[in-house]
Amino acid sequence: MDPQSLIRNVPDFPIPGIIFKDFGPVFANGEAVKILVQKLKEKITVKPTKIILLEARGYLLGSILAHELGCGFVLVRKPGKLPGETFSTNFDLEYKKGEGFEMQKGLLTPDDIVIIHDDVLATGGTAKAAIDLVLMAGVKPENISLCFLSEMEELKGSDKLKGYDHFSLYQV
């Protein structure tokens, strides 16, 4: 079974002109989930202390991946969703400007080795915002890597991640 074959293209969502990559059918298939987690584990070359999960679809496999790797995870959410003090940053999406992310303070240390996980690398805006939050928390740049299920190469999101180890399982 190839999980990539389950990814649906949804035209004009969330706005006209955008082709949304719908992973719903992938996540609904238990065999596909197992395969994806195994493929992610095989490609990871570091021993992370934390996985950074990006709202919302990064939570789905990222928490399973953290469990499989025996490490903790930290949530990155939209503004106002996390209690206590937070780090915050803004970014632009392919189809929307001025989005924001927050991450709780005190969950990362300078000695942490982190993997930032999300489902899709598109323009790189959300991934770069997550890097910024992790750096604000004091994690050393050389201890930050990223993994994605898929990458939309034509949007050149990898250009924003230069200097950071990263990979995507699929090109869509």
TrEMBL record:
<dbReference type="InterPro" id="IPR050054">
    <property type="entry name" value="UPRTase/APRTase"/>
</dbReference>
<dbReference type="Pfam" id="PF00156">
    <property type="entry name" value="Pribosyltran"/>
</dbReference>
<dbReference type="GO" id="GO:0006166">
    <property type="term" value="P:purine ribonucleoside salvage"/>
</dbReference>
<keyword id="KW-0660">Purine salvage</keyword>
<comment type="similarity">
    <text>Belongs to the purine/pyrimidine phosphoribosyltransferase family.</text>
</comment>
<keyword id="KW-0963">Cytoplasm</keyword>
<dbReference type="GO" id="GO:0016208">
    <property type="term" value="F:AMP binding"/>
</dbReference>
<dbReference type="GO" id="GO:0003999">
    <property type="term" value="F:adenine phosphoribosyltransferase activity"/>
</dbReference>
<dbReference type="GO" id="GO:0002055">
    <property type="term" value="F:adenine binding"/>
</dbReference>
<dbReference type="GO" id="GO:0005737">
    <property type="term" value="C:cytoplasm"/>
</dbReference>
<keyword id="KW-0808">Transferase</keyword>
<dbReference type="InterPro" id="IPR029057">
    <property type="entry name" value="PRTase-like"/>
</dbReference>
<keyword id="KW-0328">Glycosyltransferase</keyword>
<dbReference type="GO" id="GO:0006168">
    <property type="term" value="P:adenine salvage"/>
</dbReference>
<comment type="function">
    <text>Catalyzes a salvage reaction resulting in the formation of AMP, that is energically less costly than de novo synthesis.</text>
</comment>
<comment type="pathway">
    <text>Purine metabolism; AMP biosynthesis via salvage pathway; AMP from adenine: step 1/1.</text>
</comment>
<comment type="subunit">
    <text>Homodimer.</text>
</comment>
<dbReference type="GO" id="GO:0044209">
    <property type="term" value="P:AMP salvage"/>
</dbReference>
<feature type="domain" description="Phosphoribosyltransferase">
    <location>
        <begin position="33"/>
        <end position="150"/>
    </location>
</feature>
<dbReference type="InterPro" id="IPR000836">
    <property type="entry name" value="PRTase_dom"/>
</dbReference>
<protein>
    <recommendedName>
        <fullName>adenine phosphoribosyltransferase</fullName>
        <ecNumber>2.4.2.7</ecNumber>
    </recommendedName>
</protein>
